[in-house]
Design a protein that fits this description.
Elements (H helix, E strand, L loop, with lengths): L2 H37 L5 H46 L16
Length: about 110
């Protein structure tokens, strides 16, 4: 066995050790963070659960509002993109904006 045969093995071992150390460090960090979060929580468990229930109940309405806003923005973006493409393809100085597409599912 030559000296050169030992180099690749030690390099592989170093990489493996580095990965193991990173995994152990991450696990310790997650554990310490979870414990600190529990110990330093500003509210009692009952209050936290009540707030969580309230937020969960409000979630469908928030999702609905976000969906409507996204549809509106997508329609506006589609119109601007279509106008830009039309302008670039026909070489017109000012292309007419394309009507905003309605993405509603109703």
């Amino acid at each position: 066995m030559s000296f050169m045969d030992l180099l690749p093995k030690s390099n592989v071992e170093r990489k493996r050790n580095a990965r193991e150390q990173a995994a152990v460090g991450a696990a310790i960090g997650v554990t310490v963070g979870a414990v600190a979060g529990i110990l330093l929580a500003p509210k009692a468990g009952r209050e936290t659960r009540a707030e969580l229930v309230t937020n969960i109940q409000e979630l469908p309405e928030k999702v609905r509002e976000l969906s409507e806003k996204t549809k509106e923005l997508a329609g506006e973006a589609r119109g601007k993109i279509a106008a830009k493409i039309k302008k670039d393809l026909c070489g017109c100085p000012e292309a007419e904006p394309v009507e905003k597409e309605d993405f509603s599912t109703e």
